[in-house]
Specification:
GO terms for molecular function: hydrolase activity, acting on carbon-nitrogen (but not peptide) bonds. The protein is an alpha/beta fold. The protein is built from twelve helices and 18 strands. The protein folds into two domains: 157 residues, Urease, subunit C, domain 1; 294 residues, Metal-dependent hydrolases (TIM Barrel).
Length: 463
């Protein structure tokens, strides 16, 4: 069940509930029950018992949430502010001392902070790890659970985990047999509780990626096949077109070109003619100049980009999604995934190049957006990318927040309805214990609200 209108008020004793506190630790006390239990996504632990997830039912009337501070958008903070929610949307933001709407429900969150719901602009929510596989799994685990019936509960668990860390929207860049689109539709219809999904469907990839990808749909070679595949994906309902323009995934850190400029340009032109943005994978950065020249909206993963390339990206508004923490995740799980031990040094070198490129891009004024590239067991780590942005790339906490809110919403072409706490925007917000003077406070999630519904409470899960 999804609780609406009442979050638990802060502990009067001043205890600091944390999303990862030990069981039994002092947390949030009060009304409201969250039955949409959040479990670790696709982790090698016993699965949660099956239970129906009811539809989200819009609330009637206004609810006022009072905070120590409201971050309506990066660099916009209302001290002592309050958020007024009307059903699924924000009604208004009140300054300290402003009169509250007559008859509204009031929830006082004392010392807590409200921030906009977070956006992860690069996930693979359907690439799962089944707990039944135990502590180790074959090299390519998502290929094992090939049926949608096997994958669906794992995908739902991934979604609940994303909500638990404050991610209310994802741009999902590659699925299998359009399972991401089906899941997105069920979430939109209220059949499931999960993040809003801007899905890329199966994506478009070259036979040069075979044989690893040979069992997946989406293969296209040559301008005509690429064009036909893009049209098919648009007809299926994708919100973004994903193109793999180079090799490189998992422990393959190569970046060999798989698509020509003409093929990339064909994909971009068709997608843009339908109002659909385009994301292009380029691991090494060897194809990025052509990706930018073709007019793509974002380039995923690249490293070793030249100052000239970065300047062109800034001038043309091409977004950089570096996915740095993702390779730390692979490096730290080399044994678990069955990667060769000698890959550790290669991962370290890739990460160093990735950070250096992100620093240069940030200094050059290129828009950077948070994308975790989460898959398998990594969904609880998505927002660790923000730590990297602050501590390694050199962003301020507010600049890092922009990569997962306003700038990400703009990339999704959805900045008129998500990414900020503004009147008439969808009522997505995260309640955190902290003021964002330190980026680590973004992980101290007390509760998460999506479209006016409480979809996660730390105290309801024993955290």
């Amino acid at each position: 069940m999804v609780s609406r209108g009442r979050l638990r008020p802060p502990d009067s004793a001043g205890g600091r509930p944390r999303a990862h506190a030990r069981p039994g630790a002092s947390a949030v006390v009060g009304l409201a029950v969250l039955v949409a239990a959040v479990v670790p996504a696709c982790r090698p632990e016993p699965s949660a018992p099956d239970r129906p997830v009811p539809a989200n039912i819009p609330a009637s009337g206004l609810t006022v949430y009072k905070f120590a501070r409201v971050v309506t958008a990066p660099h916009e903070v209302v001290e002592g502010g309050a958020v007024v929610v009307d059903g699924k949307r924000f009604h208004s933001v009140l300054a300290a001392g402003e009169p509250l709407p007559a008859g509204a429900k009031v929830v006082d969150h004392g010392r807590y902070t409200a921030i906009p719901g977070l956006i992860d602009a690069h996930t693979h929510i359907t690439f799962c790890w089944d707990p039944a596989w135990g502590d180790r799994a074959p090299h390519d685990p998502f290929q094992i659970a090939q049926s949608k019936a096997q994958l669906q509960p794992l995908v739902e668990a991934n979604g609940r985990t994303l909500l638990s860390i404050g991610v209310t929207t994802i741009r999902d860049l590659g699925s299998d047999n359009h399972l991401d689109l089906e899941t997105a539709a069920r979430i939109e219809a209220g059949e499931l509780v999960g993040p809003r999904i801007f899905g890329a469907g199966d994506g478009v990839w070259s036979s040069r990626l075979a044989p690893k990808e040979s069992t997946r749909p989406g293969q296209a070679d040559g301008v005509e096949q690429v064009a036909a595949t893009v049209r098919r994906e648009i007809a299926a309902g994708v919100k973004v077109v994903k193109l793999w323009a180079s090799t490189g995934s998992d422990d393959d850190l190569t970046g060999e070109r798989t698509y020509s400029y003409e093929e990339i340009k064909a994909a971009v032109d068709i997608a843009h003619a339908h109002g659909i943005p385009v994301a292009v994978h380029d691991t090494l950065g060897t194809v990025t100049d052509d990706i930018v020249r073709a007019g793509a909206d974002s380039v995923e993963h690249p490293r070793k980009l030249s100052p000239e390339t970065l300047a062109t990206m800034r001038a043309r508004g091409v977004v950089y999604v570096p996915t740095i923490h993702h390779n730390r995740y692979y490096r730290d799980n080399i044994d678990r995934f069955g990667f060769s031990p000698d890959k550790r040094a290669a991962f370290d070198a890739f990460i160093a190049d990735n950070i250096a490129t992100a620093k240069a891009a940030h200094a050059a004024g290129v828009t950077i957006v948070m994308g975790s590239d989460a898959l398998y067991t990594a969904f609880g780590e998505s927002t660790r990318e923000l730590d990297v942005f602050v501590h390694d790339v050199g962003m301020t906490p507010m600049e890092a927040l922009a990569t997962a809110t306003t700038d990400a919403a703009r990339l999704l072409r959805a900045d008129d309805r998500i990414g900020a706490i503004r009147p008439n925007y969808l009522a997505d917000f995260v309640v955190i214990d902290g003021d964002l003077s330190q980026i680590e406070h973004i992980h101290d999630v007390v509760a998460v609200v999506k479209e006016g519904a409480v979809v996660f409470e730390a105290s309801a899960t024993g955290n």
